Amino acid sequence: MTDIDTYIEAATRDNTRRSYQTAVRHFEVEWGGFLPATADSVARYLAHYAESLAVNTLQQRLAALARWHIDQGFPDPTKSPVVRQVLKGIRTLHPAQEKRARPLQLEQIRHLVAWLDAAIAAAVAVSDRAAQLRHQRDKALLLLGFWRGFRGDELTQLRVEHVDAVAGQGMSCFLPLTKGDRQARGTRFRAPALASLCPVEAYLSWIAVAHLSEGPVFRGIDRWGRISETGLHINSLVPLLRAMFDAAGIPLAFQYSAHSLRRGFANWATSNGWDLKTLMEYVGWRDVQSAMRYVEAADPFARLAIKEAPQ
């Protein structure tokens, strides 16, 4: 790999790169398409999977195919009128409601933290270091993910040397590359120190018990209490959270994901008087549409329903 290739690869987020590779492989291997592709073959590919794949998935596949052709110096077949018309027809004939992760509520956060604290104490009492480490890590991940409104990949990318935390004062987290940082300038996020459910305290407790001074903040832990040198993989985050929620007795744990922390914080913030501009600046959204996907619309009849409810 040349120096140029190295920098080009570094300019693309790992998640994006993996999803594009998967999409191109699906077109070539599973469907049997040929690259470079024609507009007609791309249109037939869309039509073939119109009933089995979501429109958002098809759009992602088109983005991957477009990127492959541009990178290889070929004309982009995905911009042709026939492809656009087929995609529009799929949206018309196969409308689908967007699936959204269930937002985690503050009361559920309190319940989870109480459960984790009890589990940590029980693990310490029987000298079960593996369990203690897992619960300390999960507590820090839960509270930092919620109060900072992080995406799942942002949590997995955090590194100890990029976090500055002071008990009772707050913390700042630097991420060299985020989804909204198109220029790759890096973004610094701040999180508050709180009287209860404190992300700073949870983070400091975790790195202290794990003896971490550098490298990924959130890592795998094996059954013997050995901490991995590498960070958690993004694909392991949802199973980890759902297993925690289920063990703590959160109903419908399978409906939650890493986005539940982000959506939960957005709903908490708006219900506590945050205006949309402040919320967007804090979380890092660049446009209103992105923000509104995470915020539950207020029910204009809720107050009337309460007022008219039978006594």
Automatic annotation (TrEMBL):
Q: Keyword Transmembrane, does the record have it?
A: no
A molecular function GO annotation:
DNA binding
- What region holds the Tyr recombinase domain? 99-309
Q: Which GO terms describe its biological process?
A: DNA integration; DNA recombination
Q: Which InterPro entries match?
A: CB, DNA_brk_join_enz, Integrase-like_cat_sf, Integrase_catalytic, Integrase_recombinase_N, Phage_Integrase-like_Recomb
Q: Which domain of life is it from?
A: Bacteria
Q: Which SUPFAM superfamilies match?
A: DNA breaking-rejoining enzymes, lambda integrase-like, N-terminal domain
Keywords for this entry?
DNA integration, DNA recombination, DNA-binding
Regions that span the bilayer: none
Supply the name of the protein: Tyrosine-type recombinase/integrase
Taxon lineage = Bacteria, Pseudomonadati, Pseudomonadota, Betaproteobacteria, Burkholderiales
